[in-house]
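Reading is simple: the token line describes the chain's fold. The lines below illustrate.

. . .
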Amino acid sequence: MENTNNITDIKQVPLINGNRGLNPCGLANLILAICNGNDIDDVTNMHLQKLIYYVNGYHFIKNKQFLIKPDLISFWKHGPVNQAVYHAFKDYGSDAIEEFIQEEGQNVTIATELKDGVKESIVAVLDALGDKSAIKLRNLSHMKDGAWYTVTDNGNDVKDKALSDLKDLSIFEAEMEEVFCV
């Protein structure tokens, strides 16, 4: 594993899966499958978006790798969002997601789903945050001095903003450490 102690630029953090990162839709499907297996019902699009953000963050603080590229996590008014996952589930509105993401009639999967600590990161996040509502996770993602707060100027500028716009990696790291009490 690459030493990230001297990395300050979020864009330089190594990615899982041969530094390619995971397909966000495949990660979403895996999170949904694990939620279903752990009796976590009523996962909405907003809830899933925040779980993706926190799984990525938890995996980073434990393994010093991102699961998905920081530029694939946009910062919108209601917090972190992966646009591909959002659009796949937007027809659900605020209702619970009932199906996995499919592309061309096939379920989207990820080859590394059970390797490299991915499942362990998801389970740890669900244990810590799975019972929180989408609104509570949204509010948590808006933590003062956290990544979303910093990049969007406390929500005053959300146009074309992403996690990759964060200039100081230690802000993201401190946010995740506070959320997960590590």
Q: What stands out?
A: The beta strands are 74-76, 79-81, 102-103, 106-107. The mean pLDDT is 89.
